[in-house]
Design a protein that fits this description.
The chain has 516 residues and is an alpha+beta fold. The protein has 18 helices and 23 strands. It has a 7-stranded mixed beta sheet with strand order 3-9-10-16-13-12-11. A 5-stranded mixed beta sheet has the order 20-19-21-22-23, sandwiched between helices. Strand 4 and strand 5 form a beta hairpin. It is globular and about 75 Å long. It holds the Pfam family tRNA-synt_2b.
């Protein structure tokens, strides 16, 4: 298990290094030694982000007739955050180690401890499965005394964690001490008391600081949807159920701002709020859980890398909540949340604004505040999941090695690289002719520098799914060779069939079709 964790830790370092070397992601303000937990997306990273956004937006807005999109402002009236509960309740439990001076989220320390116990269970299951040909995992889990003891430990820890997160910070510290949790850096168990830490950034608005009003950088994009609920519903003449989607920046003063782009202080969210009739929320909650998992699996990054995780502690606005977790280099962590937010947000904004935020149902001839199902995915975490899964070191049949980014083709920054065999004799001109056929539909790169083998390796390293090689025969028979990144398979086709061939393989529509 320790060796596996070391390998995963190494993978995260390799992904971060590769992302910088090839222009995916840079440390923000690097020439000034950087800014902690803030990153810039380079020329390839911004393309990857835009492709993920496009896939999400089209799957939500374009495929659903009853979902529309908006773009609300980052700055909002400060009462918004009082109504939403963020001013009073948007806190994380903070704890410091006195010896290392490192700061941690207390709940994350406990959850990491639980993950270690789960690792022991998996070890027992793996050992037992090797002894029996017809191994029954479920029966083994239910009957093995050691596994049952581990499961009992987990349930006890979860119950105490839930109590601590609901306000008993003293017992949360005692739980950390009882579990003998040590600081990952110093190995010390010398902890401070647990205290609450509000995650919102605040600033001032106004021409003079003396007369300025305190406002906040939004910690989520959802409230911009809620305060515009009636504007969108009335102008769009929308009937329940309907959804409002949004992609935008959010800001959180995270306690633990580590693990590359997994947890950042400035990040981007893709959120959709689905408004439903009260009493029908659990039906739609189940439907959206299923659709969102289907969206992820359509990318082909392995069903085994995803799982649902139900929340131990529900947020103040929810009556049901589940995360879609991905197997990151740090283990299974939250990638997307699906929440049943009840009518908390709209009712709170009604109370604080004095305005009615209700839907008139002509069928039942009554007005009511709708319930809401939320799907919320971190775009930066989505980028990390793609990069981490894509990063592959391979030894080829001829003994040579390559580092290849096996990014799903519809998300790849460049869909095609056109490579003239040599940079002379009319081959570059023929390459540009082919590039011009494709560039209206796809992001294309024409690469002429270095030997053809080096150019293949360069395109592998940035995740280009297809390379088109133009050789001397191409000038005579009007045919080219297409090389596929992952399989290294090569086929020769006429130039006039390239568009159809490439479109079928790399278009986002190939993903959307799986969702219909």
């Amino acid at each position: 298990m320790a060796n596996q964790n070391n390998q995963k830790g190494e993978l995260l370092k390799k992904v971060a290094s590769h992302a910088k070397e090839y222009g995916f992601i840079f440390q923000s303000s690097e020439i000034y030694d950087g800014l902690s937990a803030v990153y810039d997306y380079g020329q390839l990273g911004s393309e990857l982000k835009n492709n993920i956004k496009s896939y999400w937006w089209k799957s939500m807005v374009q495929l659903h007739e009853n979902i529309v999109g908006i773009d609300s402002a980052i700055f909002m009236h400060p009462t918004t955050w009082k109504a939403s509960g963020h001013v009073d309740a948007f806190n994380d439990p903070l704890i410091d180690n006195k010896d290392s001076k490192k700061r941690y989220r207390a709940d994350v320390l406990v959850e990491d401890h639980i993950a270690k116990i789960e690792g022991k269970i998996e070890k027992e299951v793996t050992k037992a499965s090797k002894r029996f040909d017809d191994f029954d995992r479920k029966m083994f889990m239910e009957t093995n005394p050691r596994v049952q003891r581990y499961l009992g430990e987990i349930e006890t820890i979860k119950a105490r964690l839930k109590k601590g997160l609901e306000g008993d910070l003293e017992d949360l510290k005692k739980l950390i001490e009882d579990l003998a949790i040590a600081c990952p850096v110093s190995g010390s168990k010398n902890w401070t008391d647990v205290r609450q830490f509000n995650l919102m950034f605040d600033t001032e608005i106004g021409s003079l600081s003396e007369g300025a009003n305190k406002i906040y950088l939004r910690p989520e994009t959802a409230q911009g949807i809620f305060v515009n609920f009636l504007n969108v519903q009335k102008t769009g003449r929308l009937k329940l159920p309907f959804g409002i989607a949004q992609i935008g920046k959010a800001f959180r003063n995270e306690i633990i701002a580590r693990q590359f782009i997994f947890r950042m202080r400035e990040f981007e969210q893709m959120e959709m709020q689905y408004f439903v009739k009260p009493g029908e929320e659990m039906k739609y909650y189940g439907q959206w859980k299923e659709f969102r998992m289907k969206w992820h699996l359509a990318l082909g990054m392995g069903e085994e890398n995803y799982r649902f995780h139900d929340h131990i502690k529900l947020a103040h606005y929810a009556n049901a909540a589940s995360d879609i977790e991905f197997d990151f280099p740090m283990g299974f962590k939250e990638l997307e949340g699906i929440h049943s937010r009840t009518d908390f947000d709209l009712k709170a904004h009604e109370e604080f604004s004095g305005k009615k935020l209700q839907f008139f149902d002509p069928k039942d001839n009554e007005s009511y505040v709708p319930y809401v199902i939320e799907t919320s995915i971190g775009l930066d975490r989505m980028v990390l999941s793609v990069l981490a899964h894509a990063y592959t070191e391979e030894t080829l049949e001829d003994g040579s090695s390559r580092t290849v980014m096996k990014i799903p083709a519809p998300l790849a920054p460049y869909k095609v690289a056109v490579l003239p065999l040599v940079n002379k004799d009319g081959l570059p001109e023929k390459a540009m002719e082919i590039a011009n056929l494709l560039k209206l539909d796809h992001n294309i790169q024409v690469d002429v520098k270095d030997a053809i083998g080096k150019r293949y390796r360069r395109q592998d390293a940035i995740g280009t799914p297809y390379c088109i090689t133009v050789d001397y025969e191409s000038l005579e028979d009007n045919m080219v060779t297409i090389r596929e990144r992952d399989s290294l398979e090569q086929i020769r086709i006429p130039i006039d069939k390239i568009q159809g061939e490439i479109n079928e393989r790399v278009s986002i529509n190939s993903l959307l079709k799986k969702l219909l």
